[in-house]
Write a structure and sequence with these properties.
globular; Rossmann fold; eleven-stranded mixed β-sheet; alpha/beta
Length: about 230
């Protein structure tokens, strides 16, 4: 279980409080208005933002002061975070070894991950030779080879059209959630949450609410969520 224990996060004049737990092996959507702190929470879980107070725990181990690379966490960013001078296979290989000194089994794992996301035969292409959807698949393949138990999605598919976005969400469901990963996704769209999230949590007014079943949250939204959804 991933636990935010009385976590206080601050960026400038903005502060966010999170005292919640994320069930292992579930997909949890964070929903709320822009600037509410959804991405701030992901940054803290990933280790890019240190809390003012409180603790972050994974299976009772304290991660609060752990470096990003030492955490059991992978993250998909809004811009996919691909290196333009590297091939698709090399970008995926970074999930295994940052120095790209890949063994034969490592290279086989990279090829398998690319095939799993529908990019068999695309390993030699640079990002500028790939469509936006294909770039998203490369980033997802990198998460697959890293094989960490917690995956954070900071709206990585927001720039895709509706059909492509649904395809990517379905891949997240089939390749990550079905494999027992804890997936925490930021979204502004209730349809995204309903599509793959077991649970959802409202982030608003400097507070992260406890996750509840997705249908329960949207079928009977609290006043703050009702105001946001309109």
């Amino acid at each position: 279980m991933l636990t935010c224990e009385n976590l206080i996060l601050r960026q400038g004049s903005f502060s966010l409080r999170a005292d919640i737990a994320f069930d292992p092996g579930k997909a949890i959507a964070l929903i709320g208005p822009s600037g509410a702190g959804k991405s701030t929470l992901l940054a803290a879980i990933a280790g890019f933002l240190s809390p003012v107070s409180g603790r972050l725990l994974w299976r009772d181990a304290d991660l609060t002061d752990a470096a990003p690379g030492a955490r059991p966490v992978s993250m998909l960013f809004q811009d996919n975070n691909l290196f333009p001078h590297l091939s698709a296979a090399q970008n995926v290989g970074l999930g295994l070894r940052p120095d790209l000194r890949l063994s034969a089994p490592d290279k086989a794992s990279v090829a398998t991950a690319l095939a799993d996301v529908g990019l068999d035969g695309f390993g030699d292409r640079k990002p500028n030779a790939l469509s936006g959807g294909q770039q998203s698949r490369v980033a997802l393949a990198r998460v697959l080879v890293a094989d960490r138990p917690v995956v954070l999605l900071d709206e990585p598919f927001a720039a895709l059209g509706p059909a492509l976005k649904d395809e990517m969400l379905d891949l997240v469901q089939s390749k990550l959630v079905a494999a027992g990963k804890t997936v925490i996704m930021v979204t502004h769209d209730p349809a995204d949450a309903r599509r793959i999230a077991d649970m959802a949590a409202l982030v608003t007014d400097g507070q992260v609410s406890a996750p509840v079943a997705t249908d329960v949250l949207f079928n009977d939204p609290p006043p703050a969520l009702k105001a946001y959804l309109g």
